[in-house]
Task: structure prediction
Amino acid sequence: MAFAGGARARYCVRVRRRDILLGGLVAAPGAAYGAVPSARQLKWHALETYAFLHFTTNTFTDKEWGYGDEDPAIFNPTQFDAGSIIAGLKGGGMKAVILTCKHHDGFCLWPTRTTAHSVKHSPFRGGKGDVVKELSEAARRGGLKFGVYLSPWDRNAASYGSPEYIVMYREQLRELLTSYGEIFEVWHDGANGGDGFYGGARERRKIDKKTYYDWPRTWDLVRKLQPDAVIFSDAGPDIRWVGNEKGIAGETCWATYDPVGEDGGPASPGDVRAKDSQTGTRNGKHWLPAECDVSIRPGWFWHEKENSRVKTPDELQDLYYKSVGRGASFLLNVPPDRRGVLHETDVASLAGFGKRMRETFTAGLVRDVKLTVRGHEASLESKRPVTFDVIRLREDIARGQRIDSVLVEQATEGGWAEIARATSVGNCRLLRLPGEVTTTRVRIKMTAPAEPLLREAALFLQSARM
Result:
């Protein structure tokens, strides 16, 4: 059967409610299957694409990791413009932003009461500045959610390694969670201990990363002060690291995950068997979806020598398909420069990426297709041929991750021909076809231990081929 034309269609479906057999028990298809996301996790899943801002004294010293002995006087972004930064991120379709309020060097971007190593003792705004305040307010004006990164490791603090530091750390966290409005994500990484300034000691300090921070009590504090915020670390408790800094989830990427430490024991931030993080755990006990972090530049902080090495819109689009398109989130770092704004090259790349996303997933949406679902099979039919090269599937993850795999076929004169297949679906599965397909019928066969619950199935014509 030869087809021509390119009518565009949209279709969305909720599986009909009827009884199904689960492990010998009769259960409604709307009942939960396995681990399910919390309300805060569901809100996070809806964001999909958001930004990281790495900004501190490193921006001015041309370092990636500050030693902790940097003079606060070097922090002086004389053209700092939070509104401009947010506008640049919005151009790339970012839905939220996370700021490195304190990196490993210990320099705080807000006038904290806990240390003199902060903007309060810098020339920024005459010592009256507050980067966290300006960015959080600009984000909300721009419709973006705001999150905070607070490094557990502090190479400046004289008390690091002692119980007194944990008191200080939690007080810093309290300041951030009570002074800057609603926080959508609290971010902790796994850099723990090593050499540093430590108040002039200039020595190497080692801590037991499994016990030193007493994470359960710290996370209890987050729950108390910002109950709707998700908490990120290597091992959760809400969001997991994907196991690399390339922005790429596993081809199979389950939202359920049972993390273990490098020694096979209990996991903790900084102590997770990273090879498991890309794929997660099928039928795991915990809903711990992956976050894919990557920088738009080779480094996490701005370096002038990297101005010519900014990722292109094509590269960002590819990362989107390999993160969001595999059920994870896409956390893209875009570091402000020494002026205190996003570099022009970064802004241009973001704008190009945003344009591609709009052209594909808004203008490229195919219309006028009827969807019929019967058990483990879905059929898409159009009265006239439609052309597409991207397929998007979404499960109703509020009831668990059910689908093990999908096979997508198109109708041909001789019957059915395979055009795509994939394993995990979850919040979002994007299937890029090697070329355009034009047909009047598409069939999706799903394998799952319980009746699949598709929240969405949609066809698109990718912008690069429009």
Observations:
- The domain at 20-29+365-465 is CATH 2.60.120.260 (Jelly Rolls).
- The longest strand covers residues 377-395.
